[in-house]
Amino acid sequence: MACRWIPTPESNLLWGGPLYRWPITVEQIAEHQQKEEVSSFWLVSDEQKIGFIELFRLSEGEFRLCRVLINEEAGRGKGYGKQLVQMAIDYATENLSAHSLSLAVFEKNTPAIRCYESLGFRVTGRETSVRSFNNEDWPLLRMSLSSG
Fold this sequence. Notes:
This protein is α+β, with helices and mostly antiparallel strands. Helix content is 28%, strand content 40%. It has one domain: Gcn5-related N-acetyltransferase (GNAT) (Aminopeptidase), CATH 3.40.630.
């Protein structure tokens, strides 16, 4: 079954990077979620799924936030992304003993960058490799949050 939240190949790359094949399916996501190092979460309001986020364990105490997505039907620009990321930060620090959280974000995704910065993430570098879509290069920024 195709995932309606990701309606185009461009949004598929923006959201999931090269992990998922277009068109993305619920089965692809479910298969990825079975990995031991993956913890995923839904943001739900009034029984409607509003957002999705994933924590990927890199090593003991180190996690990467991945595949942050807000359902367009729920409406973007309402703070759901910030709420979802904060939920993942809280879960990682309180339940997984995370001391370091990082993420990669496309440089062109300025709303996401602003959201992450508002929660304390800081740009730590730029990836040397870039992703391409329709002959356009998409550089990636690395961001991190350390709890001390």
